[in-house]
Inverse folding.
């Protein structure tokens, strides 16, 4: 197998229900890159493959929630943030944003009470259950803690989310 074939396999494989792609370390290991400038080699490979695949509607993206690189197909190369994966339920989007914010602030875990407080809503349990059913988060019923799954990082461009949030905060 050549480098392109190995990269395409690693970037498109489904590791679990919530995880696709591969980490930088996994890719370098599979390519037997053990020399001094392997980070530069990796960056050149990813950039080159991305440039090569772009006219076909493929993108190589990075999920910062689990440090995985993955292959994404977007026929219109449209902005994923504007897409509505919540079927007309804006309360789910608002609850997910609050959960994302709190989990990033609290090293990956938040409590239902904190989410409810930030959301300014007495009961967010139905929203949280719906988000768990969609695979975006996990709820520990014993402790009342909520954690994100890496799935959200594959469906939203996290970098664009953070840039847009930062711009809104500046206004």
């Amino acid at each position: 197998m050549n480098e392109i074939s190995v990269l395409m396999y690693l970037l498109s494989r489904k590791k679990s229900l919530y995880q696709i792609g591969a980490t930088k370390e996994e890719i370098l290991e599979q390519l037997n890159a053990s020399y001094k400038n392997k980070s530069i080699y990796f960056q050149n490979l990813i950039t080159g493959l991305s440039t090569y695949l772009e006219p076909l509607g493929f993108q190589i993206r990075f999920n910062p929630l689990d440090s995985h690189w993955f292959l994404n197909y977007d026929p219109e190369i449209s902005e994923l943030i504007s897409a509505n994966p919540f079927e007309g339920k804006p309360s789910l989007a608002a609850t997910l944003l609050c959960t994302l914010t709190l989990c990033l602030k609290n090293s990956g875990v938040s409590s239902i009470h904190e989410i409810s407080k930030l959301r300014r809503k007495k009961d967010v349990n139905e929203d949280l259950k719906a988000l768990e059913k969609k695979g975006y988060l996990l709820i520990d019923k014993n402790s009342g803690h909520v954690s994100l799954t890496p799935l959200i990082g594959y469906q939203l461009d996290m970098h664009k989310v953070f840039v847009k949030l930062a711009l809104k905060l500046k206004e």
